[in-house]
Specification:
The protein has about 425 residues and is mostly helical. It has 19 helices and no strands.
Length: about 425
């Protein structure tokens, strides 16, 4: 086996390990929506729609806390450590969810699980992009974030097979098995070359760059951007660079984009099974719609990334968001079954599929020195939308406006996201201005 082939395999191994960590987040996204019908009838709990929405929001509040803190922390302590810590934290949290005997205990466990998950995504995306070939960054990012849909599909299949016969606790208990990937991570997952250079661990960085065919000169150039205008100025990176005048406007637009996407994704995934049951579909059929949505998401991930590497993320995200809005309008009209399936597929493609592209868009737009911080802050602020998403669904149901209004409520932010992306400039500010913070 020649050296080039070995380097490619090592890069793909990084993608695989990051894929497996992202699957944790996908599993956690679907497990709550899949178990909502059972939680509503859990003996002694007395949950109603408002209680379900509140617990869903606690989970997402934990995710927001984890994301906002984990991005800058990853730029400080390294991507690898934070990924492993996040997986361990999720596994423990899933165990406490399975053992919970009251809505309050369950909600606290869900919040704690969300905090752990917040450390997984920014570090995984940043690490994957840094080890990807420069002309395939969106593709590698999409392959990694397809783990999000893989985890969702796995959870949906387990729910179809086990929920009726074994109850909701077994689905959370299954989440504890993710701890088994930690040994593979410990021995096989490399640290970020950019991080090592930033910490002046040059020998380690150079060795990793050679082993994984990373352009070491380009890494050095990226790290020097923070002070090349004023060599005497200490290198500016991480949160401080990202909050400079040149960058914070774009950061707010990215956060607003993420807010809209997360509102749609989490609102639909929590309430879709219940909405379909209210429309007259049995539990098994309603869970199958979650599965169709995940297949739409996978298609959006891979096809969208292929297009983004050729056309640019902006030109792909705008039509994807519009497809999502149109699909939700189709679902609101109670169409014939083939159109119903197509609408659910399109909603998955334009919502979860767009989430994947948005992570890659942020990672490619910001420099390596603040990449994890940018992903964490933008997506962390965007998670406010994920907190509101389940609550929006509960408000509409409580208002008895009819199930179609749930789809209207989520179609509007999907279209608005397309408008926001249109305002983001094509290229990042010149590196020569990085030091002017």
């Amino acid at each position: 086996m020649n050296n080039s082939s070995a380097q490619t395999r090592r890069r793909l191994l990084v993608v695989l390990l990051c894929f497996m960590t992202i699957a944790v987040d996908g599993y956690d996204l679907i497990v709550y929506g899949a178990t909502v019908p059972r939680l509503l009838v859990e003996p002694g709990w007395g949950l109603d729609a408002n209680g379900v929405g509140m617990i869903g929001s606690w989970t997402l509040a934990g995710l927001m806390v984890g994301l906002v803190g984990a991005g800058p922390l990853a730029d400080r302590i390294g991507r690898r450590r934070l990924i492993m810590l996040g997986v361990l934290w999720f596994s423990v949290g899933a165990l406490f969810c399975a053992l919970a005997h009251s809505p309050f205990a369950f909600g606290v466990a869900r919040f704690a699980t969300g905090v752990g998950l917040g450390g997984v995504v920014p570090s995984s995306v940043a690490l994957c992009v840094e080890y990807a070939p420069s002309n395939r960054r969106q593709l590698y990012n999409a392959l990694t974030l397809t783990g999000y849909s893989f985890g969702g599909v796995l959870c949906a299949l387990l729910a179809i097979a086990l929920l009726e016969s074994h109850g909701w606790r077994v689905l959370y208990a299954a989440g504890t098995l993710y701890v088994l990937i930690l040994p593979a991570m410990y021995f096989l997952l490399p640290e970020s070359v950019n991080y090592l250079v930033d910490r002046d661990r040059m020998d380690e960085a150079r060795a990793l760059a050679s082993r994984y065919a990373v352009d070491f000169d380009q890494v050095l150039q990226e790290q020097q951007h923070g002070h090349e205008s004023h060599p005497a100025t200490p290198r500016v990176s991480g949160l401080r660079l990202m909050m400079s005048a040149e960058w914070r406007g774009a950061l707010l637009l990215f956060a607003l984009m993420a807010f809209c996407v997360q509102l749609v994704v989490y609102g639909l995934n929590v309430w879709l099974p219940l909405l379909m049951r209210k429309a007259g579909y049995p539990l098994g059929s309603a869970l199958q719609f979650l599965l169709v949505m995940q297949f739409g998401a996978v298609s959006g991930n891979l096809f969208g990334a292929w297009l983004a590497d050729r056309l640019g993320s902006k030109k792909v995200l705008i039509p994807f968001f519009l497809v999502c809005g149109l699909s939700l309008l189709v679902l609101s009209q109670k169409p014939a079954y083939p159109w119903l399936v197509l609408g659910v597929f399109g909603a998955g493609l334009g919502s979860i599929g767009s989430t994947t592209l948005s992570y890659g868009y942020i990672a490619a737009w910001f420099p390596a020195s603040c990449r994890a911080s940018a992903i964490g802050i933008a997506q962390g602020l965007g998670r406010i939308g994920s907190i509101l998403g389940p609550m929006v669904g509960s408000w509409v149901i409580a208002a008895k406006l009819g199930p179609q209004w749930n789809f209207y409520a989520f179609a509007v932010p999907a279209v608005f996201a397309a408008v926001v992306v249109a305002q983001i400039q094509e290229a990042a500010p010149s590196p020569m201005s990085y030091a002017d913070v």
